[in-house]
Amino acid sequence: MAFAKVITALILAVTMVRIRPSACQTVQGKVSCTDCTHSYDFSGIMVSVKCEGVKKIAMATTEDKGFFKVDLPRDHAKALSEMCLVKLLGGPNHLYATEKNQISEIVKGKEKNTYTISTPLSFLRSCPQNRECKVTENQFSSSKTLDLPLPPEWGLAPTSYYLPFLPIIGIP
Length: 172
Description:
Elements: H1 2-18, E1 26-33, E2 46-51, E3 57-61, E4 67-71, E5 84-90, H2 99-102, E6 103-108, E7 114-117, E8 121-123
Parallel strand pairs: 1-7, 1-8
Antiparallel strand pairs: 1-4, 2-3, 2-5, 5-6, 6-7
């Protein structure tokens, strides 16, 4: 009977050693605007967090006051000793930001397992004076496909269905 209790305690101890406590590490911060009105809605602005040595990028969307909270991307085998950067990506409207105001390193926060940004992330809604902002009306190229006229008696589908992709078959 005592032998069964020792074996049970030993198995329980071995399984407890393998279980790692879940310590979710989060980054909290705020995005600000230098030329916005007091009632500006910050919701929908995208922020990314990338840590050195980790392939994953964590993304967050700001709330209406500009606050964001995102779990740190990390490899479970590594501790958080790598450098992590937070980057302001963009929003539903056009944003203008300098490189200095667009990227920030993370630093240890006040609470356990929390981090915050070391420098403020800020942007402008309009192009700053004394700068050239090259913005075109249509920033994306046209998605119009090429459609060559073919005689209807050939019975082929429109060329826009197969012209963008021509498979190469039979090349050794």
